[in-house]
Structures are given as structure tokens and as C-alpha cells.
Amino acid sequence: MSNCPGMPGQFKSFNPVIRRIKVLTMKTTTLSLHTKFQIGRVDPRIFGGFLEHLGRAVYEGVYQPGHSRADARGFRTDVLDALRPMRMTAMRYPGGNFASGYHWEDGVGPREGRPRVRDLAWQSLEPNTFGTDEYLALCRTMEWMPMLTVNMGTGTPEEARNWVEYTNTPAGTKYADLRAANGAVEPYGVKLWCLGNEMDGQWQLGHVPADQYAIRAQQAAKMMKDVDNSIELVACGSCGLFMPTYMEWDRQVLDYLGDDADYVSLHRYVGNEANDTADFLAVTNSIDRQIEEMDAACRFVQAKRRSRKRAYLCFDEWNVWYKNHEVDGTGKFDPHLLEEVYNLEDALVVAGFLHSFLRHADVLKIANLAQIVNVIAPVLTREDAVLIQSICYPFAMFAARRDGVSLQVAVDGPRYESKNHGTTSIIDASAILDGNRLHVFLTNRGL
Ligand code: AHR
Q1: 3-class secondary structure, 410
Q2: Is this structure's pTM higher than 0.90?
Q3: Using CA positions, which residue lies closest to atom 2 of ligand 1?
């Protein structure tokens, strides 16, 4: 990576001419860039995260009142300190699958009056002691941009509209007054809202076919924007390439929602189940492809509707996840679920996702690493300690240099044939031009 502290400052007087950077591998790789070959400004929101009521993400993760490292509000300062170098931006909450059975009113007001409920997504017990106001206080503390997922599974469009009133409107009406009574007189101004989660999946509470989801989502979108027309909405896209409705779901939903969809969501979890590292590292090719296919769906619908407005992409769940599939929290309050442990190749694949996001900076505007603590996360807690995992490092390295415009990078060097993802360059690369400073991000996939 160029311009790291301690690295030679070879780009200090960077001129707008083609530069060739030689990378020493077994053979030479040449990268060609030009300051005029710009993809698009990097939206800081692609460095987002995701906090779900799942396993020990909230309880024993970010929130543990009474813990020796918890502050007066119950936030675990050791966890927050571990997350700070990642400079996360948009923080998606409260799910995930959890969102499709969540009623936000259970999680506001005096804690002693909040109901303990059965969460059907993960079969856990949900005490609701952490809810909307705690999450928004945490966002303020960490300078995260709030991003709320409304319940499009078992919830109603009206419930979604009421949540916008609770968070975004001045006191004087029912839900805004409720917020004020709960201690937050001024509106929070939550700009980003997801219209449900993975609604194409049969595992999702309240799953319905695309046409029915589209009707629900449009009803919610209209009322939510009627309450606050400055908000931005993310429609549920198909949640994976493996889904039989891949792209067809997206086409139908985007077509029906029309201009109400500001973004469409993509999800992707990858793993090295076959213990084939070369193939695993090549997965970046298929992430590029997934983004380009979803972009094609957006452009198709825009053209068909002859609309000025097009939906952009929101990759609101992504990570490596394949080793830990413990998902049954039956009857437990804070079960150990999905506590994945990461290694070096996982970190390289996380870098691969980020390369891909930068390469598509013109169309990809938001992305959320799933998740932030304990559940498929860069940080794991024990009672008295935190473990910072390998995937934290590439994320922090990119995030520290995220300001600027993404440049095209032509990579000319050794390649290999991967089993499932085609021809793969040993060096993967992306670049950000920030004024007269150039950051080049490189991953060496040579075994
Ligand atoms: O991130 C874990 C789960 O993966 C989410 O709840 C769901 O949306 C996805 O299937």
C-alpha cells in the first residue's frame, strides 16, 4: 500500500500522467493508472457495519451494563475502542433476520417496562433492554450514521411509518412526543432506512413472493417518505446468487417501487469450504460480477420506466462466513452463535471485497460488514477481554485512506486459472486519488 506511514513517498508530486508501479512478486506486475480515468467518488458509507440482535452481538457485545469496562450507559468501552480504528460509517440495525419479527415499540421507554419476548429468527430470548434510543446514543458516541431496518415480515407499513415519526420529527405528535418523553427532545434525523431484510428467503419471517413484498414495501415507503421526505430507502434485493429468483426478484421489486427505491440491497457471504485457497482468493471476481449484474438490473428497470432516477447499490451484508453455523439460541438470552474465528486468507478476501467496492464506486454507495462484534465479526469478547481478528486490519487500512475518487487500475502481471472464478490476477488492486495523494491498495494472492 502506498503512502502508508513509513513508506517511501514516491507519489508526493503525482502528475496526471500514466504511472507504472512495479510490484515484486515471482514475476513483475505492472499497474497503470491515470488521474483522469476516474470511476467515481468513494462514498464513505461503503465502510459501514452491521449490528443485529443475534447471539452476543448486542448483549455481551456492545452492551453489557455492570461490566468492568462498561460506561454509565452500559456500552462496553473495550469493544468500542477495538472498533474505532475501523472508522465505520453507516451502522445497520437491528437485523438481519431479527428485524423481520421485531416490533420497535418493545424497545423504547423505561427499561423495567419493556417486554421480554421470544425471538423467532434465532430462537433466543430478547429482553429489549437495548433498543432504538440506546442504539442511537451508541451511533452518536461512535459517529456512526444510523441505518434502521423496518419489519417487513410480521410488521405493518404503518409501524414503519411510526418509527420514522419517532426518530425524525419534531415533538408535537404522538410518536415524536413519545421520543421526547423518553429523553430525546430533538429528533435524531435517521436518513437511511432498509425496507425489510432478505424477504426473498423462505427462512425469513413473513417471507412472500416478489410481487407481494413489492406491495408491502411500496406502502411502507410512501408513508415513511410522507413523514420525512428527506430519508433514503433501501429495497430488499435478492439475497444471493444461489436464490432461484436471483435478478427476477430485483427486476419486479424495482419496477414496482419505482422512484421510491433509492437503493437495492445485495448480500454475500463467502467461504473456503473446499479448502482451496487459490479458488477462495479468486472469489473477488464473482463479487465484481454480482455488483455488475445488480447494476444491470437497476439500469434495465430505469430504462424500461423511462425514469430520470435510478436505484444505486447497497451491499448491506458481506463477509467471510463458513466455519461456524451455530444458529440455534433456543431459550437463551445471549447464546454463542456464529462466533467465526478468522485467519489470514479470510483477511485477504475481506480486502478483495473492498477492492471490488472501490472498483464500482460509481454505482455502489453503501456497504455493511456483517457484523461488528462476536457474530461473524472483527471483534470477539470474553468476559474480561477482547480479541481483535485478522479481518479488522484490511478494513482499517482501507478506511484510513478512503477519501477521494476511485481510479481505474489496469493490472498486467501473472495470472492463474481458478477452479470456480475464472482467470485471476495474482495481484488484486484498487486505488483512490485524494487531491494530489494517491493510495494504491494491493493484495498478493500468490500462494
Ligand atoms: O448476518 C447474519 C444473517 O445472515 C442475517 O441475519 C441475515 O440477513 C443473513 O442471512
Answers
A1: strand
A2: yes
A3: 96
